[in-house]
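note to self: dont lose this again. the chain is below, predicted strucutre after it. 114 aa total, dont forget to put it in the shared folder this time
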Amino acid sequence: VQLVESGGGLVHPGESLRLSCVASGIDVSTSWMYWYRQAPGKGREYVAEITTAGSPHYADSVKGRFTISRDNAQNTLYLRMDNLHPDDTAVYYCNTVDQPADYWGQGTQVTVSS
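---
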């Protein structure tokens, strides 16, 4: 299983980004898929998930600003991030679990700064 994130960058507060996570070795349509983030000096934090039925769930800190989705044909997970805040600055990771294995991508850096 391989998860490869991309789409991070440096943006100003209020701007948007879309992160991508291309998966291989698993089928995103039949796996619960997650986004996590880790800010400097902090632990890894749950951001969002999408169930096999396509139902999204979000951390309170991003609800209403972030949208998780997937493209089954491209086997890709997305995270659309709108109205970004400086405290959204972190490395963002894609994740899935196929017991007993727990798979992570390498992460993509998102920096929100004026």
